[in-house]
Amino acid sequence: MRRVRPAMLIRWMLALLVAGAAFPWLTAGGSTVAAEPQPIIIDDFSTPQAEIANFQPGTRAASAVTDEGILGGVRVISAEHTGTTTVNSFFWVGVKDGYYYSSRQTNGQGNGAIWWHGNTNTNTLDPTGLGGVDLTGGGYWDGFALVAGRNVLLYEVVVTVYTDGTHYSTASFMPPFIPSSSEPQETVRLPFAGFTAAGADGGADFSNVGAITITFFATVGYGPAISLFKTERMNVPPNVNAGGPYSGSVLQPVSIAGQVDDRDDDTITTTWDWEAVGGTSGTCIVANASALTTTVTCTGVGTYRLTLTASDGVNSPVTAEASLTINQESPTITWNPPTSITYGPLGATELGATASVAGSFSYHYDGVTVDGRTVSGPAGIGTVLDVGTYTLTATFTPDDTTNYSSVEQSRPLQVTPATISVHVNNASREYYHPNPTFSGTLTGVVPGDAITAEYTTTATLASPIGQYPITPTLSDPDDRLINYNVTVSNGRLIITAAQTSITVEDSVMTSTATSVELRATVTSDVPVLAGQVTFSLTDGAGNEIGTPSTVQLSGGQAVITFATGGPLSTGTYTIHGIYDDPARNYAGSEGQATLTVNAAGPATVTLMPGNTVATVGDRITETVEVLDAGGRPVADGSVVTLKVSGVNTTTLTATTVNGRATFELEAVFPGVDTVTAEAGGVTASATVTWREPPSAGAALILVINPPRPFALVTAISLWGHPSGTVHYQAPDLKLQSSKITSVVATKGSAMIFGTATIAGQPVVFRVDVTGGLRDGTVRLRVSNGFDSGVVRVKITLQLS
C-alpha cells in the first residue's frame, strides 16, 4: 500500500475544497447558501513548469510541479521524442506565463502529455490518484472548457478521464489556430456526454474521477497551447420530443403535440416537417408549422414521418421524429329508417341511406318470422319481408376505396301484419235454379302474393226460399296469409220463388153428365216438383158452378174429376186453374180454359177398318166415326181419344169433322196392339197385328270398340237368313239371351229385330244402325219402354 505524505494529503484536501465550491450546500456551518456554483479548476497553468527539451530520439523526459491551485495538487508534463535523428531535432514542452506550450525543430517530433493524477510520479499514471473527484458537482457541471490554440499542428489533442484502470473515456479536439509563440485565446468546450468509452470495462464515471490526461502528437510546426482547463456547465441543445405515434384519417386534421425542454432558457424556434414513407403517395399540410401543438392533414392513406426541429441559436438544431399513420376515413352515414312497417315491399323510406362521399349501398336482412323461421338475404327496393323481427344492415362501399373504408350500419325493423278485407257481394236466384257465380272484392293484398278468394254458400239446388250466407274462402298456395289480418264481410244469397205458368186444358162434356175431367199443366224453367192446383168453374155471368176442388200436382200435371153439381146446359163455361205452393218455393200462377157442354153424348163409336194386320215400318190409318143417338154425326170439334196398348203404346187425340176423326199409326216393334177409341164416354176397340219385316238384303254388321253401354252388336243376314246377337250392359238395362230374328238392310242403314230376356221377362227389341266403314250410330229400343237414344260409335258396317 502506497504511503501518502502529509504535504500531499493537504494538497488533496485543498483540491477537494476547491471542488466543493461546486456544491452550494457545502459550507462551514452546514447551512445552505443560494450562491452561483463555481467551476472546478483542473489547472489554470498559473504555476510555471520548467521547459523539457528532448532531442534524443526514443527518449522520454518528464517533470512534476505541485500547487494547491492544481486539481489533486500536482501537474505532470512529459515529452517523448519519436523522431529518428538528432539533427535539428529538439522537441520541447513547458508552462510559462499562464499557459502550457509545446514546439519542435525541423526534424523533431514526439508525443506530449499532461497528467493530473494527484501525485508526483512522472513515469506511471495512477488512474485512481485523484481519489474519486466529482467533476459534475453533483450533476451541475456537464463538460470541460479549455482555452487552447495551435500553430501548424495537424493532429488532434486527446483528453482522457479515468475512474480506474479499466474505466475511462476519451474526447479529442483540434485547437483553434493562433500565430506562433502566441497565447491561446479561444475556448474549446468538451461536453462530458461527448466522451467515448475506451476502457476495457467501460467508460469513466465523471462523478468519480481518479485521473485526467491531455496527450497529443506533434509532427509539423508548433504544438498546442493550453491556458485554462476547468469544468463548465454547457449550453446544451434543447431536448426535443415529437410525441406520437399519431394516427388519423385521410383528409381529417390530426392533432400533434411536441415538447421542447431547454435548460439554458434560450429562445427556441421550432418547425414541423413531414415526409411520406413506405410507398405512401399522399401529401400533408401542417396548420402552423412553427407551433409545438398544431394539426396536420394528409391526402393519402399510408405512413408519414413527422420531424420536429428545435433550434436554440447556440447549438446545432435538434430533431425528433414521430410516425403518423393515416387510415382510411370512415364515411358518415345518414340512415333513419322507421323501426316498424306494415307488411309490404321495402322502399326508399327503409332503404334510403346516404353517405358523405360518393359510393354505393347494399342492404341485407336477418330476422325471425312470425312463424319461427330464421331468414336472411339481400334486400332491395321491392323486397317483401314476412311479418317478424329483423335487423336491416346497410353496407356502404365508397368509390374511392383507397382513402375511404366501407361502412356497415344496422337498424332494427319490425314488420307488422297488413290487413286484407274481403267484401262478398249479395246475390239472388229463384228456387231450384243453380247458384249464380258469386263475386266479391278482395283488397289489401300485397302485389306478388297469390291470394285469391272463392265464394261459396250452404244453399243447394233444392234449398227452400230464404236467405243464405255467402262466405269467402281464401286460396293461399304460397302460405302468405301469415302476413295478414283478415276482415270479412259476408254476403247474402236470397232464394226467391221460382216463377211458374199454368196451362189449363179445354174440356168437353155432355149436357147429361154431372162431372168432367179437368186438366192443367204447371211449367217453369225448372222442374215443378210440388204444389197444388185448385180448379173452379164459372158460367158466362161469373157464377160459380160446383165447388172449387184442389188436387196435388204430379209430374207437373194436375188431373181431377170435377163435380158440376148436376147436369149443365149446353154452351161454354170458364175453367179456372190456380196453382200455388204451400212451401212458397214456387210462385203461384193462374190460367183459364173453356168447358164446352154439348148435347147428350154420341150413341155409337165405330173404329175402322177394325182388326188389321200390318208390317212394322208401314203406316196405317185408323178412322173413328162418332154418331149421336139419332145416327147423325156429332158436332164438329168433338174430342176423340185413341189409345194404343200392347207392344207399342201411345195415346192420340183428334177432333171430329163431319163426325169422323182420323189417326195415323206406325209401330216400332212387331206384335199385337189393342187400339181403343173413346168419345163422350163411348168406346170401340180393334187389334193391329204388326208383323216383323222379313229379312232383306245382304248385310254384315259389326259394331266394334264402341263406348259403353254397348258391348257388341254382331248381325249377319245373307239371302234371308238372319243371325247374330246384341249385348247391352248398363245400370238401367241389361239385355240378356238376345236373338236376332230379322235384319232389314239397305245401303247405309239397317233395322235389326230380335227377342231377349230382361230380368227374366221376355221382350222384343229393335236396333237401328246407320253409318259406313267408320263412324256411325246405334239406337236400341225395347218393348218394355227402354230407349237408349242415338249413340255414336266406331263401327264397321257393310250393307248391300
From TrEMBL:
Keywords: Signal. It holds the Pfam family MBG_2. Residues 604-691 form the Big-1 domain. Residues 1-21 form the signal peptide. This is Uncharacterized protein. Belongs to the intimin/invasin family. Transmembrane segments: none annotated. Residues 237-333 form the PKD domain.
